[in-house]
Amino acid sequence: MLIVSVVFIAAASPAININQYFTPTLFQEVKNNHGNRAEYRVKAWQRLIEDNQDRTELEKLKLVNDFFNKHIEFIDDIKHWHREDYWATPLETLATEGGDCEDFSIAKYFTLNALGISEDKIRMMYVKALEYNQAHMVVIYIPSPGEYPLVLDNINRDIVTANQRRDLKPVYSFNGQGLWVAKAQGLGNKVKQRKGFAPWVKLIKRIEQGQ
């Protein structure tokens, strides 16, 4: 279940270093805990990052969006993790072959960053999915200042500009650099950092621990 909160603590996003993150121990643990298919998915994720460093940014967007939309099944947190709200790491999402819209977005965001796309250009964005009348999360890519961002989503799997997604009402976006209150279909204004709890901070720590 997606719980929208504007309480946020900025924490720098750790880049996934393929030489340190993808170890024989990690693959063995995934295989032991989740089986051969899970190990295959995680190795496919490694190849995605290793083999596509020299692609254009637009090519990287499509590869990453298609990869996670293909390999992950949408499952609500209550059913999947037996928690009301849980932000899974990309490894947890791939190993268990499921996640909600937050998990899709988190996996795409960190994979794009691992492929060399600057954090300045990517954010996760909370939106309201008007057709479903519920909170939703997507990843946005900002080609350059002043341009409409591109939207990576697990509902509409085509990558289009935000102004073409009239089914989404932006609420706010964030990355490790801060929080922006959304305005119309644009990027909105950055707000001062607020003190409080954020699932983002816990997520960062788990990724840094190799989870």
What does this structure look like?
Pfam families: Peptidase_C93. InterPro entries: Papain-like_cys_pep_sf, Transglutaminase-like_Cys_pept. This is Transglutaminase-like cysteine peptidase. By secondary structure, the chain is of the alpha+beta class. It has a single domain, classed as C8orf32 fold, CATH 3.10.620. The chain is built from eight helices and nine strands. The chain has helices at residues 18-21, 24-34, 36-51, 57-71, 77-81, 90-96, 101-114, 199-208, and strands at residues 73-74, 98-99, 122-129, 134-141, 150-152, 160-161, 168-175, 178-181, 189-191. The strands form two sheets. Strands 6-5-4-3-7-8-9 form a seven-stranded antiparallel beta sheet, with helices on one face. It has a two-stranded parallel sheet with strand order 1-2. A hairpin with a 7-residue loop joins strand 8 and strand 9. The model is unreliable at 1-10 (pLDDT under 50).
Mean pLDDT: 84
Helical content class = 25-40%
Total number of domains: 1
What CATH architecture do you see? Roll
Could you say what the CATH topology is called?
C8orf32 fold
Task: Provide the succession of SSEs.
Answer: HHHHEHHEHEEEEEEEH
The class by helix and strand makeup works out as alpha+beta
Unreliable stretches (pLDDT < 50, length at least 5) are 1-10
Rounded radius of gyration (Å)? 16 Å
The number of distinct helices, counting runs of at least 4 residues, comes to: 8
Classified by CATH, the class is Alpha Beta
Overall form: globular
Largest sheet properties: 7 strands, antiparallel
Oligomer: single chain
The total beta strand count reads 9
Name the strands of the widest sheet in spatial order: 6-5-4-3-7-8-9
End-to-end separation in angstroms reads 21 Å
Approximately what portion of the residues adopt beta-strand conformation?
15-25%
